[in-house]
Amino acid sequence: QTEEIKRNIGYMSQKFSLYDNLTVAENIKFYGGIYGMRRKDIAIKTDELLSELQLQNEKKTLVSELPLGWKQKLSFSVSMVHSPKIVFLDEPTGGVDPVTRRQFWDLIYHAADNGVTIFVTTHYMDEAEYCNRVSIMVDGVIAALDTPAALKKLYNSDSMDDVFFQLARNAVRKAD
Asked: How far apart are CA 27 and CA 74, in angstroms?
């Protein structure tokens, strides 16, 4: 049921996944096609995304010419171009400035407020504070799963950084 899965899931990879040699608008249209959207819907969604991201003046700009933060926000939007129910974001804020990072989380909150389930992987434990539930893995196994507040209470901690450090102290490092 590949097509059904594709319609319901969006994905943004850790490594930038848009095409540098296509324009902003061409990337949106390309991914809309990959996700099986109709041309009319792609055109409407392209205009919506360009407006939401305030990239109307950049629609003919090659993606390679955009700042990293704009690329990341565009990549997130493209992962949601087909209105999926679930979106996976693999370290979406890595390498972006603090202002763009905050704006990125605003995009995530907006999507979640509209009923989209968002899974975020991150090494930034302060970002875990923004999530409804957190899963911390140690040695490839889930070591903790709960709300940030509950985890901080359980581990008698003021921060998710400290919760992580308490759990990570028990890690067994194995050579590959």
From this structure: 9
Q: Which of 63, 69, 68 is nearest to 100 (CA)?
A: 69
pTM of the model: 0.85
Q: What is the pLDDT along the chain (176 residues), one digit of tens a residue?
A: 887 888 899 999 877 679 999 999 999 999 999 888 999 999 999 999 999 888 899 999 999 999 888 888 899 999 999 999 999 999 888 888 888 888 889 989 999 999 999 999 988 888 888 999 999 988 888 999 999 999 999 999 999 999 999 998 877 776 65
d(CA 97, CA 88): 21
